[in-house]
UniProtKB/TrEMBL annotation:
It comes from Gordonia terrae. One of its GO terms (molecular function) is DNA-binding transcription factor activity. Residues 14-111 form the HTH arsR-type domain. This is Transcriptional regulator. Keywords: DNA-binding, Transcription, Transcription regulation. It comes from the Bacteria. InterPro entries: ArsR-like_HTH, ArsR_HTH, HTH_ArsR_DNA-bd_dom, HTH_MetalResp_TranReg, WH-like_DNA-bd_sf, WH_DNA-bd_sf. SUPFAM superfamilies: Winged helix' DNA-binding domain. Pfam families: HTH_5. The keyword rRNA processing does not apply. SMART domains: HTH_ARSR.
Length: 120
């Protein structure tokens, strides 16, 4: 997903390709467990964590947490690196920045649309 492809302007919504690019990220974040996991990885010292580091606050098995982290990785929200028997996850800040830009653009377009409606 690249910033230039997801620029929202008044009178222009996302294309099918643009929507397809952002949907997996939003779907992955829509799950409360995955959203919490993403925040746990981001907040972990050093900015990376393995399942063994972050499973404590969850009432889920390590395989279930690994599955949720895999979904986040497939969506591009985290990257992973295998070290011996553990896989370490790190937040993909570029993907989060792009989502932030998209949502900011959307809020701006909605604000401009409402402003135009008030002028009429």
């Amino acid at each position: 997903m690249s910033n230039k492809n997801l620029l929202l302007l008044p009178g222009r919504g996302l294309s099918g390709d643009e929507t397809g690019a952002v949907t997996p990220l939003l779907k992955a974040l829509a799950d409360p467990v995955r959203l919490r996991l993403l925040s746990e990885v981001a907040a972990h010292p050093g900015g990376e964590a393995c399942v063994c580091d972050i499973s404590g606050p969850f009432e889920l098995s390590q395989p279930t947490i690994s599955h949720h982290l895999k979904v986040l990785r497939q969506a591009g929200l985290v990257t992973s690196e295998r070290r011996a028997t553990w896989v370490y996850y790190r937040v993909n800040t570029e993907a989060l920045q792009q989502l932030s830009v998209l949502l900011g653009d959307l809020a701006m377009v909605v604000g401009e649309t409402r402003s135009c409606e008030a002028d009429q």
